[in-house]
Amino acid sequence: MGKNKKQVRKKAKLTVDVTVEEFKSLGGELMNRHAAGNAADFDTRWMSCFGAEPEVCADVWRRLEVEEADPDAPDDKIAEPSHLLWSLLLLKTYETEPVLSGICGGCDEGTFRLESPKFPELGFGPPLLQ
After folding, report:
1. Closest CA to 66 of 75, 54, 58, 57
2. Where are the beta strands (DSSP E) in 38-114?
3. How far apart are alpha carbons 40 and 85 in whole angstroms?
4. CA-CA distance, 18 to 120, in Å (whole number)?
5. What is the pLDDT of residue 28?
6. Whole-model pTM?
7. Which pLDDT belongs to residue 127?
8. Cβ-defined contacts of 47-50 (< 8 Å, 24+)
9. Residues of the chain with pLDDT under 70
10. What is the reported pLDDT for 61?
């Protein structure tokens, strides 16, 4: 009479804490701006590039769960904070890979193609940002 219990695999969490200041620094590098500079200019450019405040990025990073990853894998093998910003940049601007890979520090287009869509595929989208 007992029901078969469905085994639920525990989701891996991205446990590397990244502060708001660290996200500002990473985003500033992509935008070629310093967070300590003109705050209004930095904030305007940030929202134009990423569409979510650094505080939201840090919160999303803390809450993000990875569905199909080895929970024992090192966090840097799952994703990096800069890849979250790459995903936001892709979602916000929907530019071509050559343009976006150039913005993202001149990374290889293949690397950008591999890393930037990780978060939309993991269910990252507007509901998580609200």
Report:
1. 75
2. 65-66
3. 20
4. 20
5. 92
6. 0.71
7. 46
8. 48/92, 49/88, 49/89, 49/92, 49/93, 50/85, 50/88, 50/89, 50/92
9. 1-16, 65-78, 118-130
10. 84
